[in-house]
Amino acid sequence: MLDEKVDDLLTNPQFVAWTKYINHFNVKYPRKETSMVFPIAAHYGDDALFGVLEAAKKVESTKELASKLQAEQIKKLLSSNESPTYVFKAFNLDETGDTALDSPLFKTWLNYMKSFNDQNPRKKESMLTSIHRYYDQDNGVAKIVDEAMKNPRTETLAKELQAERL
């Protein structure tokens, strides 16, 4: 089952049966609850899994399962103390260019960063820390801010990022 392409995983009948088994197991044995995400992420990688789950959330037949798996994956990353910078890359936000703040996963990543910072006050990271890691400080970050300022949905985030830059 895991030997298939990650893109086909959520619609594979064996995978669907496996998820039902895991759900039944977790209800029957709540103290031994197990996650579906660990073996999937170990096999395909966090970045591939996040991409597939984000796409699957847009398809009615896989939306519910994809949302559940994405929440589990975020919980796994938090429990593993993965840095927001690592998760920024796992979400492929390093490849979104000037529209990074408008990416559907950016808000999810921002919530992850806030949760991580709450759990790890000595390892706090800012938006700028992660963005600067993958985008040039002057041109890249400035372009992201400029592009986000033009969009009412991202204007507030752009102002926050701009304030961090100063």
From TrEMBL:
The RxLR effector PexRD54 WY domain, residue ranges: 72-112
Gene Ontology CC annotation, any one: host cell
Source domain of life: Eukaryota
InterPro entries listed in its UniProt record: PexRD54_WY
Keyword vocabulary terms for this entry: Secreted, Signal, Virulence
Localization annotation: Host cell; Secreted
Annotated transmembrane regions: none
Family, as annotated: Belongs to the RxLR effector family.
Name the UniProt record assigns to this protein: RxLR effector PexRD54 WY domain-containing protein
